[in-house]
Amino acid sequence: MVKEIPQTLRAQVLWEAGHRTQKSMKRRGGIPERSAERYIAKLRRGESLERESYSTRTKHAQTPQIIRKVIRKVSDTKKGHSLKQLAVYAGVSKETVRSILKNNGFKY
Questions:
Q1: Does residue 49 lie in a domain region?
Q2: Contact 49, 11 (CB under 8 A)
Q3: What pLDDT digit, counting tens, does each position of 50-69 carry?
Q4: How many helices (H) and strands (E) does the chain have?
């Protein structure tokens, strides 16, 4: 079974071998010129070609103030608000608003 070498690794090897132009990386390693341009710029700055990890998602805390704010807004008005409108008003995500309403017995 033959495994193909990843493009970033090929670019790294070609860079170390002295092929430092887009055309030579395309010709020698089959790397598209736009990708080679990006790799060359990163390698000149001394950066790694590995992907950066993403930051973890932060969830909004359901503080008593936010819960009161959402419930007060729903109870005070005669017309219904969408979850999105309530979320913007309270400054949290619509999933947080949905779970607050669900936990407090509202059918939304």
A1: no
A2: yes
A3: 888 888 877 778 888 988 98
A4: 6, 0
For 82-102, what is the mean pLDDT? Answer: 88
Containing domain of residue 15, as a range?
7-44
Q: Which of 48, 38, 39, 93 is nearest to 70 (CA)?
A: 93
- C-beta separation of 69 from 89 below 8 A: yes
- 1 lies in some domain: no
Q: Which stretch of DSSP H or E encloses residue 25? A: helix 22-29
Beta-carbon contacts of 86 under 8 Å, excluding residues fewer than 6 positions away, are 70, 73, 74, 94, 97
Task: Measure the CA–CA gap between 45 and 92, rounded to whole angstroms.
Answer: 39
Sole residue written with tokens 């819960």: 67
Amino acid at the residue 24: S
